[in-house]
Design brief:
Elements lengths: L3 H14 L16 E5 L5 H8 L7 E5 L11 H11 L5 E7 L9 H10 L4 H9 L4 H5 L5 H13 L10 E6 L6 E5 L8
Parallel strand pairs: 1-2, 1-3, 3-4
Antiparallel strand pairs: 4-5
């Protein structure tokens, strides 16, 4: 029996040998000058770009659980700033989705699963020792609309983001690809 990794590596060898990469070649700068923060949900991997007419090379995309920008100085915000300052992105879009696994996620359930898979009380205590509040860090959200708006607000108010960058908030239906606009950054910006 082969592993998932072995299957991927065997396929990759043939992919490169057959020059399958040629149809995906593009530059490192996004053609549409857009960076998207999106959920890591498997249903959005191909649906989101297709539903928004986006092709390889059009955008920079940051995948994170719930499309949540949890901290103004975390890795998601750092990636956004790199996209703006080093990779020529001129707009930002946060795209959450209905039926998200982060909606209603309870920390206690995650911690119980950690313990069942061998994470010790000592390890959990060490995390707390370093100042991480696991209840806050792992907790989900109750409203996708509020979560998207909160992430948009964190980005818009960031002291290192240029004030002329529009930040949009969208919510996608993961079954149909329908997108609803929660907030449109053009209304606030003078471009």
């Amino acid at each position: 029996m082969t592993t998932v990794l072995q299957d991927m590596l065997v396929f990759n060898e043939k992919f490169v040998e057959n020059k399958g990469y040629e149809v995906f070649q593009s530059g490192k700068y996004p053609k549409k000058k857009l960076v998207i923060v999106s959920c890591m949900d498997t249903r959005l991997v191909e649906l989101l770009p297709k539903a928004l007419n986006l092709s390889n090379g059009d955008i920079k995309i940051i995948k994170v659980a719930g499309a949540v920008v949890a901290h103004p100085f975390g890795s998601v915000m750092r990636s956004i700033l790199v996209a703006v300052y080093a990779l020529q992105a001129e707009e930002i879009c946060v795209i959450g989705h209905h039926d998200c696994g982060m909606r209603g996620l309870e920390t206690e359930g995650i911690i119980q699963q950690m313990k069942q898979r061998g994470v010790s009380e000592q390890a959990l205590a060490a995390v707390k020792y370093f100042g991480v509040d696991l209840d806050e860090w792992l907790h989900g959200f109750s409203s996708i609309e509020d979560s998207v708006k909160q992430s948009v607000e964190i980005i818009e108010k960031h002291p290192l983001l240029p004030k002329d960058i529009p930040v949009h908030g969208l919510i996608m239906n993961p079954h149909t690809g329908k997108v609803d606009c929660v907030s449109q950054g053009y209304e606030e910006k003078v471009i």
